[in-house]
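Narrative of activities, Objective 1.

The group set out to show that a structural description can be obtained from nothing but a protein's sequence at a throughput compatible with the screening campaign. Below is one input-output pair from the validation batch, recorded exactly as produced.
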Amino acid sequence: MSSMKTKDRIIFAALELFNELGERTVTTNHIAAHIQISPGNLYYHFRNKQEIVRAIFELYSSELLERFAPPHGHKESLSLLKHYLDSIFTLMWKYRFFYANLPEILQRDEDLHKSYIAVQEKLRHNLVSIVNRFIEIELIEIADSEMESFVTTLHMITASWLSYRAAMSQKAQVTEEVIHQGMLHVIAVVKPRATVGGAEQLQILEEGVRAMHTE
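Output recorded for this entry:
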């Protein structure tokens, strides 16, 4: 059990440091020092930093697919919308180093890139189910012919918002406010497809996100 515990500590320490300092600047020695273990102890669990990145990706993948599972039961529509919007924020914030440097991280690890594509394909499949559920409960109206491009647009915003922002600003700091702006863009894309009832609920969500800026 203790070895599992150390392994988890390494993963969570790395995630914290990658988010705070940027993955490129953090070494395995930094990670070991952060949790006060020897570099040898770290190498017992992970041969190199890339293996730690992969372990973080596994965590991210399972949380992503769990949070964006197709809805079951008769959850009230506003709470359903809020659940998915909150999940976007949580994932972007918790794994922000990954979102902000996605192309670079994937380019240097072919196996990780394959895993990423496989997970994103599952996510796309789930997104179609989620959007279909929103159509069923009359939150939005989308023609079958437009479903593919609509889901692609939502997927594109959430997957690449932080790397887009990093490219557009020399201050690459990811703040909660930057993620809130991404959430507002998601709402803006959904709004034109909303029913009257759906538009009211999106407005409530939008006001909630905007209020977070002023807290």
